[in-house]
Amino acid sequence: MAFNFNWSPLTADAEFYQRAKEMLTTALNKSPKPPIIVDDILVNELNLGSVPPELEILEVGDLAEDRFRGIFKMCYSGDAFLTLQTRVQANPLNTYLFSKPSFTSPQPLAASSGLTIPLQITLSEIKLSAFIILVFSKQKGLTLVFRNDPLESLKVSSTFDSIPFVRDYLQKEIEMQLRTLMMDELPAIIHRLSLRLWCPEYMAKEDEERAQTEDLDKVEVVVDPFGSPPQDAVDARGNVLHASEISSLSLDGSSEITSLFSQKNLLRLAALNDSHRTLSLFTPSIRDTVFRAWAGPFERGDSAGTSTPVTPSLVRSQSSICTTSTTYTFNKGSDDGHGHMPSRPSLVSLNSATTGLGLGAGRHSRSHLRKKKNRVVNLRKSKTTDDITSESGESEGSMTPASEPAIPTRIPEEPEDNIITPPRSPSGRVRFRTTSIDLGDSPRKLRLPTAARPALASQRVPEQAILDPTSTAEKSQPTAPIFSQDKLPSYNNRSAQFPAEKNAMSSTNRTPYLEPAPMLSDSTPPGILEQAWVLKMAGEMARRAHDQKVVNQGFWASQPRDEREDSPPPAYEPNVL
Amino acid sequence: MLEFMDYIQQAFYEGSHWNYENSYSQLTATARALLDFDTPRGLRLNLSSLSSPNFATSYAIGSVGLVDGSLSYLYTSLPLRTTSQSGNVDLHNVIRGYRQIQELRRKEESWMWERWQGGRRIDKRDTLLYGRLYLPQSTLEGLYLRRISPTQQLKLSVVSDSRLRNGGTVLALHQYDVGKYNAESLYSTDGGLIGFRGLYNFGPDPRKETTEQPPRMDDRFYGRFSAGAEMYYGSLNKSGGVSFGGRFATLPAHKGTPLTATLTLNPLMGNVSTTYAVKAGENLALCSKFDFNVYSYESDLMLGFELWRMKGRSEPRRERSIAAKLEWRADTIEEKATPEPEQVMGVLKARMDQNWKIGLLWEGRVKELLFTLGTSIDMKRRDQPFRVLGLELQYSS
């Protein structure tokens, strides 16, 4: 295996420096500036130099044409330089008074009058040394995280080099700003840019996407990751450092577009969808799957007008018969699937918004999560990467913020296509994340707002009538359990953390209300994440079917919805965390 | 408009015969009042009371963002006999405008403060204690003011706030004022700032008894020239600042138009600032300020005015009496010895700088409420010129 790091092509792009300067300028002016800087910071000159950074591959967790995960050690001591221009307040008394309470201010008459001086700062001899965790996927974009403070040293030369006090002050301030820039701003910038570059469907309007939903393949075709030049992602970061990795990565996998989902799964889901559409009793067996009616958390919330989808809520889905297990789904709107709302603001407002995004958003959301938690997760791990999984899990743990809940937070790194593999021991495989997994919406939650729904029912009739597979399933498979298998210990542990919910659940879990959820699995659920994914798929399929029907026939629009008018059991009120 | 507690402090200065204005820091008080006035933000309500001559309370609630407010209490050992009712208070005392400097008064001798009873001195130094708690920021302000002697005053200001470095700051200010000159020294725990300020008044020394009247000529300015300097040094951060200043202002006895002109220099930073204020009429004052920096060539011009709107005294229309008509004469008009003081309806203040930033302030009284309505307008931003809009209401009893 060979990596090809291109450093010089970066500089060949004429537009690159211009764009990098703009990005840097905005990034530098975003964080609150110290009072001594009285003007915007402008990036005057930027040169990446000719010496590329040294990269040492410590670990490659996942490698395919469309995705990559790895840990690098990077050292850089090149000749890149950066010239900034701004204006500073030269009167120390003025800055001294800036943030002091006026009550104890000495209130000088004119001694604090300002003198602003244009200042030019040149940053050179930048020495960086860092461990970088890089996760790349066509769907999720590029996530780059520094595991440590990358800045080792740099030389700040400015207009005030002759005054040691000012020089030291500037050096200190600039180093501080740069550190925050690299640790906080840079990953965000990179991610945003990579999304824009590699995932053009996120930029598309939602209705366009809805128009495309008829064809699964179409979506995948749209996701043409490397149609755009990979250099853009590099300059997006505006940083000298890791440019080579990204470019090389992108160049590596540029040729092919691979299908994201296994054909087997798609076929099964299609069959399942068909069976529901036709009220057929046949249910293809898909392991580790819970069928959900709606793929996205917003649809029902919006239709009911009651729930607030963005607030984190705890939704419990639970087996209906002869099991005691529960699956907790933590839905935190800002964290998962729809955390990238700014790029697609209309997603929230439209009920069927998630339809077109079913596949893309499902995967994409996790990339957000990972970025946030500094996690490296592979959904499509090859059969031999179990050890890597555990390794990366450990490394993740070390990076996990201290404020994270004590609940074990591992993402099941399960190959998507090993559904037919025999169930493994649950203890090592089921990992759970509190705030991460976007399961779309569970049927329970979806049913919550029924009481408030009649007001809006008239507008919603077609969609709900179609999209309520629970009703059809109710007729066809009233006794189907969600999880048939014995329950995982980790699940039980988790449920112990929410005794209230559990009690409520146990009191209600025999209600016929719960039964309609169709069950798709007869083996050990390997992981929430995978379930979530399959759920999304299922929801997606249902969506598509619905859309097609809406287009084709009006019969479903007139479907009675009376079975859904019953109010939900109180135990399924959304728990706002 | 002065807040109630500031108003009470002014009353304390007055009651203890302290010349608040004879200080270098008040050299440009006129220009500050006319040009650098604060425009209120949001809605703010003040409820205050001078419940006894020695004790005052004030509550404020505002709506800047969230609801915030403050509680303040003030105790003074000097009984204050000032009008505290917002319905009766003289607006000239609570609205800062053109500051007419007064003739220097002779300071009391320290023996004048002595009071003896049964062979023991019983006089106490006048003290003022003031505390203010801001909620929900949990910021505490405290003030300790003590007249040490007729010529000296000590002022300790404290702010306690967890967000400040070291949890708070203390400023100690010692003022020495003999009329002819004033000297102040201060120390701030924030950065170990040490400062000295001094002001010297040219002209007759109020300490010396002068029998001869100063020559009065109507075509000459009759005023006072004052000069001063200040110096600061931050002992911890090794920074400092210096400025010099001078002021010429006419005294009340001046026959012509009252005016005040100041010049301040900051030699370290190369800053020159001049202000010129004229009381153009009974109810109108104009002010201009020009700043120039000799190092950076930056300049700044600011213009402002204040206009006092008086309630027109409606003269009762007089009918000639029958007796006067019969006698073919006009009624004798009895002149009042002292004309009734005009009622202030309100004060309009406006300022504008060369960047087309405009500040407007309308202060006045409605019924028993004192109000301040202000806005600042940025004419360069056409889309949303109104940057700040605020209304402040005060009621005190």
Describe what this molecule looks like in 3D.
The complex is a heterodimer of chains A (577) and B (397). Chain A folds into 2 domains: 8-252; 263-576, no CATH class. With 577 residues, chain A is α+β, with helices and mostly antiparallel strands. In chain A, the strands form 2 sheets. In chain A, strands 1, 2, 3, 4, 5, 6 and 7 form a 7-stranded antiparallel β-sheet that branches. Chain A has helices spanning 8-12, 14-30, 92-98, 164-198, 206-212, 216-222, 231-237, 243-252, 263-277, 298-304, 346-349, 358-373, 386-399, 426-429, 443-447, 454-467, 469-476, 489-496, 499-508, 528-552; strands spanning 42-47, 54-63, 67-77, 81-89, 116-137, 141-146, 151-158, 313-318, 326-331, 575-576. The longest helix of chain A has 35 residues, at 164-198. In chain A, α9 (263-277) packs across α20 and α12 (358-373) runs antiparallel to α20. Chain B is 7% helix and 50% strand. With 397 residues, chain B is mainly beta. The radius of gyration of chain B is 24 Å and the shape is globular. The model of chain B has no long low-confidence stretch (mean pLDDT 87). Chain B is built from 4 helices and 21 strands. Chain B has a 19-stranded mixed β-barrel. In chain B, strands 4-5 form a two-stranded antiparallel ribbon. The interface between A and B is large, with 23 and 48 residues.
